[in-house]
Amino acid sequence: MAQEFKLPNLGEGVDSGDVVGVNVKPGDVVAKGGSLAEIETNKAVMDVAANFAGTITAVNIKVGDKVKPGAVIVAYDAAAASTGSAQAPAHVPDVKSADQRAVPRSGEAVAPAGLRGPAGAAPATSGQASVATQEKAGAASAPAMDLPRGLRPAITGERHHGMSPEEAATKHVVVIGAGPGGYAAAFYAADLGFQVTLVNKETKLGGVCTLRGCIPSKGLLHIAKLITEAKHASAWGVDFGSTKVDIDKVRAYKDGFVATLASGVGQVASARKVKTIQAKAQFKDAHTLTLLPGEEEDGTVSGPKPAETELKFDYCIISTGSVPAMPGPWRALKDDRIMDSTGALELKDIPKRLLVVGGGYIGLEMACVYAGLGSEITVVEFMPGLLMAADRDLVRPLQANLAKLFKSIHVSCKVEKLEPQKDGVKVTFSGEGIEPTQVFDRVLVSVGRRPVTQGLGLEATKVKVDAKGFIEHDKQQRTAEANIFVIGDIAGEPMLAHKAHAEAKVAVEALAGERSVYDVRAMPAVVFTDPELAWVGVTEQEAKDQGLDVEISRYPWAANGKAHAISRTEGVSKVIVDKKTQRILGAGVVGWEAGSMISEYALAIEMGATAEDVSLTVHPHPTLNETLLGAVDVHLGHATDIYRPKRQ
Ligand SMILES: Cc1cc2nc3c(=O)[nH]c(=O)nc-3n(C[C@H](O)[C@H](O)[C@H](O)COP(=O)(O)OP(=O)(O)OC[C@H]3O[C@@H](n4cnc5c(N)ncnc54)[C@H](O)[C@@H]3O)c2cc1C
Q1: What residue owns the CA closest to ligand 1's atom 48?
Q2: First-to-last CA distance in the chain?
Q3: Is 621 a catalytic residue?
Q4: How far is the centre of ligand 1, averaged over its atoms, from the C-alpha of 453 (Å)?
Q5: Domain spanning 328-447: which superfamily?
Q6: How far is CA 199 from CA 181, 205, 383, 439, in A?
Q7: pLDDT tens for residues 578-603?
Q8: Which part of the chain has CATH 3.50.50.60?
């Protein structure tokens, strides 16, 4: 029989709120703790979590409604829930006793005596298949392959490289590409004793990340955030006056730290005796590269004919990365007002009207940069939402802030045509709620990235490329050619610098004969917008799609002292916990500095930590990281700084 769910109290002194998100529709099956709606009050955006498990039969609210505590917002049929756990109070986990809850602390092979549970207690498993990252050859006993890393028996004794340093010294490793994957691989291989050559086609080392990706964008985002914060400061009694941006100085500042880092890569290479060659590498066969003159990202030849035209190798690691995707007809227009991310980072000027095509992380980060510098931003996204890989409840507070920073955001909207004109680029759109033709001073096209295999001569080897253009490889990053490895963007999604770095280690250890495999379960993703959005492990959507039996808990930053002190209460921290094992499987944070905060949960997930592990970890006060503690305490039912109404 249908039951009613009433809007709980919204906090002291708050008698109503605006509905800014409705996350369920009739027919949806909702787990206890699942998000029903988001309500914005004068204090924060609050998530309204279900304190029941069941099937939604009616939804009585819509975005834009004003609602008061006690209003029936949904009706549900609890009988349709499979487990009957809907009768349990909200957010109280099924496993409650200290003994049952206790599993070995991460990193321990055996449960310790005492408060943590009976010695020898069988460690819980998380339900996620996992293999050992480093099944070292020669380890005393094979690690239990189905356990999360932290619970695998400790591997003792000498670290074993398949190859001795003496043998390694006779082998030549060539790395193609000096991005974060390539230079990390080259340096690690040198540390293991190999002779190493790093071939990079561009004049500068560092790859996309250093030269036209992570690093310059973060420097500019820092400036943009500073400008935005300075504007907010007037509300706190500090007025810095109007902002004046000297774009030439900003550009010079950005170019300065990029150049420092790029030359640092060269210095570290020579310190490690890694030979660097500027050349475009092309496979002649599975043990030989042809070296052609170097070139920049846009294809302009930039280097002299290399002194050596052929390079023999024992092992090769391909790390040629990716380039921005640009639809052919738009590229053919050859108009530099139509930019990709590389063009946008050049900061030629501050356009008055900037259109950003693509609501992914690169588009939104660059949109924040230009908004901070003073451009009027319009974002259009073909998909029905921004940042589709992230959970909607985390995107919502970000989108609410971006809506204030930008002129407009349009989803489910397509750019049909770009027509360069004298006074700007005329853009034709299709989609609801958007003026069909508009003129912009510049257009940033940020619609994805394309792996770089063209011109590599892979056909001279057995290396295979998949339908999306990524190089196929096994868990050791080994291609179909036993002595050729692949890492970074060219090896597949996610195209992130820290993934490239992690794969570099595995590839080098694998070619050294170690039994290392790539087995990362906690790959963080960060969007460095304002506020930042970060997540790690499974998302709520992935948990649903995979049929994982999880409980989801959220902690609104409106209950955090530091968030109030810095006037950033819009954040939310969220944790996804496996119901049976109590292990943390995923987490997400939206808020100021979320990108730095997420590492705590990455470690927790990688170590196989339970909600209890995090809860027992004292977090310093006052910090935003306390909200991470808060989320697990909400899950465990003992959050003290927040009131979570029990089931009526
Ligand atoms: C605007 C922007 C912001 C980003 N922000 C982030 C972020 O905040 N965090 C994050 O993790 N990631 C970020 N990324 C992604 C990150 O830059 C990439 O994931 C990372 O650079 C991939 O590293 P890689 O080693 O695979 O290749 P790349 O960095 O792409 O380097 C490849 C290198 O190979 C060289 N090369 C290519 N072909 C040849 C050849 N035939 N011979 C010789 N050399 C060759 C290239 O010249 C280049 O130097 C961002 C990307 C962009 C565009």
Answers
A1: 207
A2: 16
A3: yes
A4: 13
A5: FAD/NAD(P)-binding domain (3.50.50.60)
A6: 13, 10, 39, 43
A7: 999 999 999 999 999 999 999 999 99
A8: 165-219+248-323+451-511, 328-447
